[in-house]
Design goal:
Mean pLDDT of chain A: 96
Distance between the termini of chain A: 36 Å
Low-confidence stretches of chain A: none
Largest interface: A-B, 24 and 24 residues
Number of helices of chain A: 7
Number of strands of chain A: 12
Largest sheet of chain A: 7 strands, antiparallel
Order of helices and strands of chain A: HEHEEHHEEHEEEEHEEEH
Oligomer: homodimer
Strand content of chain A: 15-25%
Radius of gyration of chain A: 17 Å
């Protein structure tokens, strides 16, 4: 459970970072499995113009380890607590930000896309992310604009050209104004760190030109009553299964990791 | 003059950073003049694909403030000291790394370009750079690979497509190997910081997607005996005037800044 101070920081600043929430043992198996997923050619794995992986969708539906992460109480309970309601999985992504070729994510609000493309009524969904690699200042960390979530849904343009991923992006004047007010923060740290941010928080990330990959898993959890009304995207991008998530045991991923390790030995 | 410890750090690590070497007053005038230069359409001002300025060449030849910087003892003396010889101006660039659109500089060694394109005999030239804006972890700081200067000239490919600037760039396997050995450092700090690095030091910088511009002036100073033999680039890129630089007084730029400020009031 989040403390009262953490809940307040989330509401005021729009984000919350909990370092080292998962152990090295839990993360190692997810990192291995992510690399295997990226090697497969399937519609859920989107690639950069270079061919490097950009994001893998819906891995909780076809991979056991990511399935357990998608029902992990350390992911589900904080979001239930903030929304005071059960949640379902709206979207599930493993973003690669590959070494050398991981491309930009332009400045955007997530809820802008969920509202426009998926018909989500309210910003009662949010991303909760786990670092699979160390996130450093130099390997394309997520950049957040604190307090920008108080601005509602901002005007945006549908960027279909910059990268292989269509995104509703904000203009430079808007970002400049919000950064003048709130600055920019870049939560960084070891694998296993957990980051929550409001669906209307403005964020982006620069390309990664270093040899250090920067994989992050994003669960988009939506309050059950806020299910999407008019989806336009594939159902493995914007899910139509609105069943409330029942969390697994807190050690379920650890036990999976231990079995996985034994099997590999 | 550099201390013995500084000289040793340069030889061992391949770089040296001297924070706040120029004052705010000295830097403010250079920043103003740089912005004016970028607004002019002239062959010396190269632009990103977006139209934003990428670099302005040879401003010491057509701008008085940058002319004074190009003969400033705080720029010239450290390089003379390291080479134990007088130097001339081989190249002079004001790199913009503009807010939102400043593009990547792929991993490269400067001397690789000076040798291949300009016929420079030895790596007895180097960049000495001054920050005109604050350089932060998030606005595309220069990334250096410490100790990579000990590797000599590495094999490189001529990248004519990634950006508007042709560059001899290193492959991913080479960069990965050197970073495993030396890591990556990103000198950051206030305007007025001074950075020297060896002509063979591997470096690059990521795009800048923040609202914070990141202008840096690079003087490439070459030992007079090491003048270029077979130039192929325009003479405002790779200069043919091999006259040793005679430094101005240490307060010359400050006095110019004070006159400039008075004239503006």
């Amino acid at each position: 459970m989040l403390t009262q101070a953490q809940v307040e920081q989330f509401h005021t600043e729009g984000w919350l970072f909990l370092p080292e929430t998962f152990t090295d043992e839990e993360i190692a198996v997810l990192r291995d499995e992510a690399e295997q997923i990226y090697r497969v050619q399937r519609p859920e794995v989107w690639r950069e113009k270079s061919g490097a992986p950009r994001t893998a969708f819906a891995a909780h539906l076809y991979n056991e380890a990511f399935g357990l992460l998608g029902r992990h109480p350390r992911m589900i309970r904080p979001v239930e607590q903030l929304f005071d309601e059960q949640v379902y999985m709206h979207q599930y992504k493993i973003n690669a930000k590959a070494s050398f070729t991981g491309d930009v994510w332009q400045w955007h609000q997530d809820y802008g896309t969920w509202a426009r493309d998926d018909g989500m009524p309210e910003p009662r969904a949010m991303n909760i992310a786990v670092f699979l690699d160390e996130v450093m200042p130099i390997n394309g960390p997520l950049m957040l604009v604190p307090r920008s979530h108080t601005q509602g849904v901002l005007a945006a343009d549908h960027d279909l050209t910059t990268t292989s991923y269509p995104l509703w992006t904000l203009d430079e004047a808007t970002v400049t104004r919000l950064v003048q007010q709130g600055g920019i923060v870049t939560p960084t740290g070891k694998p296993g760190g957990l980051l929550l941010f409001h669906g209307n928080l403005v964020h982006g990330s620069a390309p990664n030109i270093t040899p250090y990959p920067r994989k992050i898993v994003y669960l988009t959890l939506n309050a059950v009553s806020n299910y999407i009304r008019t989806p336009t995207r594939a159902d493995w991008i914007a899910h139509r299964d609105f069943t409330p998530i029942e969390p697994v045991a807190d050690d379920a991923l650890l036990r999976y990791a231990q079995r996985y390790k034994q099997a590999a030995e």
